[in-house]
User: What shape does this take?
Amino acid sequence: MNIAVRSDAGKERLRNEDNYYCKKTGEMTVFAVADGMGGHAAGDVASLQAVETIGELVETAGIDFSSSAELFKFVENIIKQANSNIYFTASQESGKVGMGTTLTAGILFKQTLYLGHVGDSRAYRVTENSLERLTRDHSMVEEMMEEGRLSPEEARLHPQRNILTRALGTFPEIEVDIKRVNLEPGDGLLFCTDGLTSLVEDEEILRIIKEEQDPEGAAARLVENANARGGYDNITLILSLDIGRQEN
Ligand SMILES: [Mn+2]
Assistant: This one.
């Protein structure tokens, strides 16, 4: 299977509050990354609950995965369910009040990706010569950038870049960004948390992927690079290459 996964605490944090889920079953592959936060070290509880909810619902879903409309709705619903579960846990257990998480999850069926997203983790499509971002960060700096108040470089290094405008677990209802993306044979996908993207620029991520070719080598070097630049945050990534060309 042409997929590599890495989750690294980084150089400065004692705990890794990121979590991921990645499973390939037949013609379907499920990807999810989550970056937990807050509530007296309960960030890892929130991010784990997010990816576990995705895994459970995907594995027990009685839906027709070849129906595009059904799959589209399903991706939105599983993220909403993850939000409800985390919100419920946070409301039941003192010490978990205020915990939350990002969640970027995709179901790839044949050559079509059904993507759902909340927070500032990211999904990218890797083509022959570009890294195309498929998600929009739900963060204060992204909004300031869209309003023209920050340059992309200023946003990437901004001291308040961690402030999210949307996260799972903080409100009973959540708005989920959903998207359908048709991939070309040979395209790749990268799901990652901000511990990678705040330290390694898109052009460099693309360069490393192209130089290494194989996902394991590229994933290892991406983590190394983030750590070499300080590794201030947990770093998690799922990299799948040569989709539609892989043997299985
Ligand atoms: Mn992070």
